[in-house]
Each structure stands twice: as structure tokens, then as C-alpha cells.
């Protein structure tokens, strides 16, 4: 009885997080279905676009379909995951199977505490922070503090101010000249350090200290294999670029290309896919007009067929994106088994984000939804160079540093979005433009898309650079291959 009550509250909370109320009979149907509450609620939310109250009829329709689809189908997902994990690919960190959040206010308190603990620990190694509440008692002329920042305001051309808050209190900070310019690129909500002169309870900042990755963090791991980075395949969309995809398949399967390209293809041992595997259903207004495949299951069946065409000695690791059939809030778990089981045995499904180790090379795989937020907030950044926006995530040691904008966050007890390990590679996608580079020894890549410009992207003035593939040789070269256009 107690368990049923907990499940009932869980169902109500999960629908509330997604913006829905739910009829009591619909709740009973979900609780008594014997299926995963998480997956079922996600599925109902995806299919009842525009409803205000989830009705028993809507739940019944989804249940019938799920049962039909999964009847008699062996759950190959976990079995396959185990086989792959025993080999050379290891998941170091991923929310999949560990999600506990229900979206309550208490969950958010615990979540932001986790973020504060992790990032302030990084900063404490570089500063000697004092508690903000002690500022009135301190005799020293200079101080260091660490905290969340808020209320950033430009006072005049040369001066800005903001508030910094730790667990003990709040203080005002003033910044002039070059420090002011740095302050004007802060988002608010991020955790930073301030080193400055103490005047009463206010601090006049000499230095803004980001948690950032270490300067000498370069790791020269030399390997004799290559890793291919792609993303945003959007199978099911009318704008999917069949011809470019075919050219990519021919190359990676060593069926076309000059001697140099064939040699490069032969060296590929892993393919990483940073989400938006399919185009999805109801992701943006009037999306149905742009879909070639109108059914989400058929979209994944088609996606699985396409990845199945990649030669089988290559391991494929993929995470979901905001178009995929999992919860939208990050961190996103991996695709549920009803979809992941459609893929071949050489495909490993992980969450978004995930840390993956391949033969000693650490890869941070992240779909990249927060890049929209970062690019819109810092005027020197743009979609033509998405890797420069990725640097801002590394500097803040957080994959979604802007809370309450376009990147919804699920308040897990542990903040999976903190960059608490230094990766060798960080891969993202989402913005559909290609960009790559190195930052403090870390290879950054945003791996474009396999979809041409959609009507929606035209409206928001997004010009994709599709069919671009990064081939990375750990400790060696990086190649950019173009399969779109001549
Ligand atoms: Fe996408």
C-alpha cells in the first residue's frame, strides 16, 4: 500500500514537471500497468501534445501500443550493454538507471547544493576563500570568496556590479576595467571565485576566478586507432540527406575514397553519436509537415537499420538529444529498451551526458542543448564556431550553466552536469554546425548534422553545415571529412 502511494505521488510529480495535470483513474492505470513509471509517463507526455489534463483514454491508448510493441520481444538492451561493457568501452558516469529526482523544491535544493559542493571544491584548491558572513569581522585588506553569482548589472562604461552568495550569506562585488568586461560575460547562477579588496561588506574585484580546466591538463595518449564523431542524424525527417549518408557509409565501410581516405577508414574503431538520432514527433510546432516517417517506432527502426550498415568491427556509442524519445530534462537517461533493442549488438546506448572510456581515452559525450543559451548570452560567440561556446562550458566546469533558459534540468541528487573529470575529448551536437579545436589539451568537437535546413531553422536563422565528420586519432591528427556537396 505504501509503495502504491509513493508511486501515485511519483506519477503526479512527473506529470507536473512536464506541465500536466492527471486524472486519478489515469494514475491508477499507470501504477497498475506493471511497466516502468518513468518510461510510461514520458511516453504519455510525448503523445498528448496540448492536453491540459491527462485522461484515462490517453493512457489506455499508449498502454495498448506499448504492450503490442513489446509483446514477445526479448529485452536485449541490458544483455547487449553488458557484453559491450566487458570489452574496450566503459561507462564512467551516466545517469541511466540512477535517476531519483521527482522535480520537487527539495530536489532542487539538494541539486544546487551538489553543484555548489563540487565546483567550490575545485575553486578552493586555487583560492583561500572565506565565508561571506565573515566579511564584516575580517581585518585583512584583500579577500577571496566563492559563491553563486546573481544580479549582474552594468553601472557605467567602466564599472559593473553583482552579488555573490555562499551558504552563509551574500555580498556585493564591484568590478572595473578589464575585470568589468569579464563580469559582463557572466551568466548569473554560475559558481565562481572572486579575489579583491574588502571595503566594508563589499569587495572590489581584482580577479574573477573560473573553475576552468587546468592549464597543463594536456594528456598525450597516443593510440593507433581513430574515433569518428557524428551527431544529429534526424532519421525520419524529410530533410535527411540520404546521399550524404550513403557517401559516409561507403567511406567508413572502406568501399570508396583514395588510398589515404581508405587507410583512415580502416583505422576507425569507434563511432560516437551525440544525440538527435531521430527527428521525433511533436518536438516543435507543425513538425509533422517536415516528417517523412510519422511514427516514432518506425523512425527508430529506420535509424537502427542505417547504423546496422556500418561495418561490425566498429563499436558505436550513442546518447539521446532533445528530439529523442526520452525525458527532455538533462541529464537524460539512455533510450528505453523498446527502442535500444532495435539496434545491432555493436551499438551501446548511454545517457546525455556520459563519460566514456575507450581504451584509456576519456570522452565526454553531451548533446549540447545549452549551447543555444551560451551563444545567445555572449555576443562574441556564434553558431559558425560552436566549439568556442564549448570552451565556455569547460571554463565554468558545467554543461548547462544557465538555469531556467532553454536547457531544462532534472534535479538529481548528484549534479551529473558538472564537469568533474577532465576528459580528453568533449563532443556535442545540437546546433547543426561543425566546429573543432583544442582547449588546454582537450579536443573539442561539435559534429554537425545529416539534415539540411528545416523550415523551423530558416525562421530562427540557423544555417547548418551538414555531412561534416571529425576523425580523431588520440595523440595524433584530426581530420574533417565533408560528405555534403561536391
Ligand atoms: Fe538536432
What does the secondary structure layout of this molecule look like, with pairings?
Layout: H1 2-17, E1 21-22, H2 24-31, H3 37-47, E2 53-54, H4 56-70, H5 76-86, E3 89-94, H6 105-124, E4 142-156, E5 159-166, E6 169-176, H7 177-183, E7 191-199, E8 202-209, E9 226-230, H8 242-252, H9 259-266, E10 268-274, H10 296-308, E11 315-319, H11 337-340, E12 347-349, E13 354-358, E14 361-365, H12 370-377, H13 386-396, E15 425-428, E16 434-439, E17 442-447, H14 455-459, E18 468-472, E19 478-482
Parallel strand pairs: 1-2, 6-8, 9-10, 10-11, 11-12, 14-15, 15-17
Antiparallel strand pairs: 3-13, 4-5, 4-7, 5-6, 7-8, 9-18, 13-14, 16-17, 18-19
Helix pairs in contact: 1-2, 1-3, 2-4, 3-4
Residues 232, 234, 276, 321, 323, 430, 432, 449 line the site of fe (ii) ion.
CATH fold type of the largest domain:
Purple Acid Phosphatase, chain A, domain 2
Ends apart, CA distance between termini? 65 Å
Proportion of residues in helical segments: 25-40%
Largest sheet: 6 strands, mixed
User: Order of strands side by side in the largest beta sheet?
Assistant: 3-13-14-15-17-16
Oligomer: single chain
Number of domains: 3
SS class: alpha/beta
The fraction of residues assigned to DSSP E strands is: 15-25%
Amino acid at each position: 500500500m505504501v509503495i502504491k502511494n509513493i508511486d501515485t505521488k511519483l506519477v503526479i510529480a512527473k506529470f507536473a514537471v512536464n506541465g500536466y495535470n492527471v486524472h486519478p483513474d489515469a494514475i491508477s492505470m499507470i501504477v497498475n500497468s506493471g511497466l516502468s513509471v518513468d518510461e510510461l509517463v514520458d511516453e504519455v507526455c510525448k503523445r498528448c501534445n496540448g492536453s491540459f489534463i491527462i485522461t484515462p483514454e490517453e493512457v489506455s491508448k499508449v498502454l495498448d501500443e506499448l504492450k503490442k510493441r513489446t509483446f514477445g520481444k526479448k529485452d536485449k538492451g541490458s544483455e547487449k550493454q553488458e557484453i559491450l561493457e566487458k570489452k574496450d568501452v566503459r561507462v564512467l558516469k551516466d545517469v541511466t538507471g540512477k535517476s531519483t529526482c521527482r522535480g520537487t523544491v527539495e530536489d532542487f535544493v539538494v541539486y544546487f547544493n551538489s553543484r555548489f559542493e563540487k565546483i567550490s571544491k575545485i575553486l578552493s584548491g586555487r583560492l583561500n576563500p572565506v565565508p561571506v558572513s565573515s566579511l564584516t569581522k575580517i581585518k585583512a585588506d584583500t579577500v577571496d570568496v566563492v559563491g553563486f553569482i546573481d544580479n549582474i548589472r552594468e553601472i557605467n562604461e567602466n564599472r559593473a556590479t553583482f552579488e555573490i552568495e555562499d551558504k552563509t550569506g551574500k555580498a556585493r562585488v564591484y568590478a572595473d576595467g578589464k575585470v568589468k568586461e569579464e563580469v559582463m560575460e557572466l551568466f548569473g547562477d554560475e559558481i565562481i571565485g572572486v579575489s579583491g579588496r574588502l571595503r566594508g561588506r563589499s569587495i572590489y574585484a581584482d580577479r574573477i576566478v573560473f573553475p576552468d580546466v587546468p592549464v597543463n591538463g594536456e594528456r598525450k595518449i597516443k593510440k593507433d586507432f581513430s574515433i569518428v564523431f557524428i551527431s544529429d542524424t534526424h532519421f525520419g525527417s524529410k530533410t535527411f540527406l540520404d546521399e550524404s549518408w550513403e557517401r559516409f557509409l561507403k567511406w567508413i565501410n572502406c568501399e570508396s575514397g583514395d588510398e589515404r581516405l581508405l587507410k583512415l577508414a580502416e583505422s576507425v574503431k569507434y563511432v560516437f553519436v551525440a544525440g538527435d538520432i531521430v527527428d521525433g514527433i511533436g518536438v516543435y510546432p507543425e513538425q509533422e509537415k517536415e516528417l517523412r516517417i510519422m511514427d516514432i517506432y518506425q523512425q527508430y527502426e529506420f535509424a537502427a537499420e542505417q547504423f546496422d550498415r556500418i561495418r561490425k568491427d566498429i563499436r558505436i556509442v550513442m546518447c539521446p538529444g532533445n528530439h529523442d524519445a526520452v525525458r527532455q530534462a538533462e541529464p537524460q537517461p539512455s533510450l528505453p529498451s523498446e527502442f535500444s533493442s532495435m539496434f545491432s549488438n555493436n551499438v551501446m546506448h548511454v545517457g546525455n551526458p556520459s563519460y566514456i572510456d575507450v581504451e584509456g581515452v576519456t570522452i565526454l559525450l553531451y548533446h549540447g542543448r545549452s549551447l543555444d543559451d551560451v551563444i545567445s548570452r555572449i555576443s562574441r560567440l556564434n553558431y559558425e564556431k560552436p566549439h568556442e561556446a564549448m570552451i565556455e562550458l569547460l571554463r565554468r566546469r558545467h554543461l548547462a550553466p544557465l538555469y531556467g533558459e532553454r536547457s531544462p534540468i532534472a534535479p538529481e541528487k548528484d549534479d551529473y552536469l558538472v564537469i568533474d573529470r577532465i576528459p580528453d575529448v568533449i563532443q556535442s551536437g545540437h546546433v547543426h554546425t561543425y566546429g573543432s579545436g583544442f582547449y588546454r589539451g582537450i579536443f573539442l568537437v561539435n559534429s554537425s548534422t545529416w539534415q539540411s535546413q528545416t523550415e523551423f531553422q530558416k525562421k530562427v536563422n540557423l544555417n547548418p553545415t551538414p555531412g561534416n565528420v571529425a576523425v580523431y586519432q588520440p595523440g595524433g591528427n584530426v581530420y574533417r571529412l565533408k560528405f555534403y556537396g561536391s
